[in-house]
Description:
single chain, four-stranded mixed sheet
Amino acid sequence: xxxxxxxxxxxxxxxxxxxxxxxxxxxxxxxxxxxxxxxxxxxxxxxxxxxxxxxxxxxxxxxxxxxxxxxxxxxxxxxxxxxxxxxxxxxxxxxxxxxxxxxxxxxxxxxxxxxxxxxxxxxxxxxxxxxxxxxxxxxxxxxxxxxxxxxxxxxxxxxxxxxxxxxxxxxxx
Length: 173
């Protein structure tokens, strides 16, 4: 970050839109996905951060990609962007836990299909793997910097501590 830049953290289940040249959006992704969307001729962009592609039943939840993408695109349209000028950059979708279903792959597949159906090209992407990513996005001009968090992020619970001896019990070594 350079002096004068305004950092906006986009956490899980949020999105943000800006045309301010000093705005920098940031997020950290594991299996979640983020789409950085820009209309370069209007100097406006936005970023979302969703946890899962969609959920049966209650669709109006920004944690889910279907609703999050609609909010991001429609929010940009309301601020003067045009869909035929939008360009996307896609990030995230890591497989963070090897023994569970690959949610990250589902998130990325959803985002690709959604953008294709909307006619929005993906200019670049960094998806998959097993490491978290930190993303910095300048929405006014569409620049993105990615920082990969070193090492795999396999989370394993520590072993349980041995039970404490009962009162009056003697432990021999």
